[in-house]
Structures are given as C-alpha cells and as structure tokens.
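--- STAGE predict ---
source: upstream dedup step, 1 unique chain passed
mode: sequence only
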Amino acid sequence: MILLGAIVNSAAILVCGTVGLFAGKLLSPRIQKAVTSALALLVMSVAIPGIDDSQKPLVPILSMILGVLIGELLDLDKAVNRFGDWLQRKTGGRGRITEGFVTGTVVFVIGAMSIMGSLSSGLSGDHTILYSKSVLDGVSALIFASTMGVGVLLSAVPLFLWQGGIALLAPYLAADVVAEINAVGSLLIMAISLNMLGVTKIRVLNLVPAMLLPILLCRFL
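--- STAGE serialize ---
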C-alpha cells in the first residue's frame, strides 16, 4: 500500500500528541519552556545538514525570494492564523492552537526524512524511513502538544497530504528537484527553530510557496 507510511506517520502524531495534551498538565511552565528550548535546538540540528544538499545554489535563492513574495501577497500566515483563531473559539480557547498547528506543520511536514521517506514509499513501496520518522515525530508531538496544545494534532492532516502527494508523484520527480526542495525546506525548519527560541518572529507560512518552486526552476537552471 503506497500510502501506508504516511498513514502511520500521521497516526503517530495523533496518538502521541493526545498523550501529550494530558501529560502537559503535569509539567510546570518552567519545565515546559526548558523542554521547548531543547526541542528547538534539536530541530535546528536537523535543518543544518539539509541546507548543504543543494547542488544548484541559485535554485534555493530564487525559490526563497519568489516564494516569500508569493506568500506575502497571498498572506498565507494571516489566513492560517485566522483559521487557527476560529478553531480556538470553537474549542473554547483550549491551548495555543494556532502556534501548535503552524509549528507542528512546519516541523513534521518539511525535512529530509519526510521527502525521502515519501519518495521511497512511492518508488519502491519501502516505508522504513517513514516508520523511523514516525517514532521521532511521535516523541516530538508528545512534547509539542504538552506545551502548545491541541493544534499540534491538527498538523497530522497537512502531513498526510504532503507525504501522500509526494509518494504519488514520486515517479515524476527528478533527483535534482528533490535535493533543492530539501535544501529550501531545511531553511524553513531553521526559521521555525529560531522562532521557538524567541530569537525571531519569522512568518514561516509565507515562505511555504518556496518549497514548490524548485519543481519549476530546476527545468531552467
């Protein structure tokens, strides 16, 4: 089953995130902040190696510039935040839904394991990479949900759509496109880790269109 890896990965986030919602009540704000900071550093360590994957430096440069222009014109960050605020009102304000959804989406969806695991699922039906990622994401979801709330669980939806889409499109993506998407994605992961540490306040969702541009740019560069 070509989508099995994506299903398992999404389920791990839902199950472990649910556990984290209740475990979070046992953690003091000081411990929650310390855990979030430690996780941000781990996220940064995942991003750094992926940045070096690019074999065509001009592609991620143009992707980021054009991507942020598209994202700002569409104002994806504002749209998603409005959606998160609506969910927060509907659920009685439980947890920092918007922050949890945005952080979970960027951290779980973007990255080498997500891309390469989905490609492996689509090309050979081997889900080993996504199974391994499910374990890592499960632990992260537990911690994220304990500090950010139910919004983290909602990130399982874009994760499944992203990984499932890549798995289905895998036969049509060239190796150079995969490398450039991974490089751009790693830059976005770096941005979210800096946000988690409170160093910056980058509107990461407005950078997401940059992830798709290497598909087009690799044809001409």
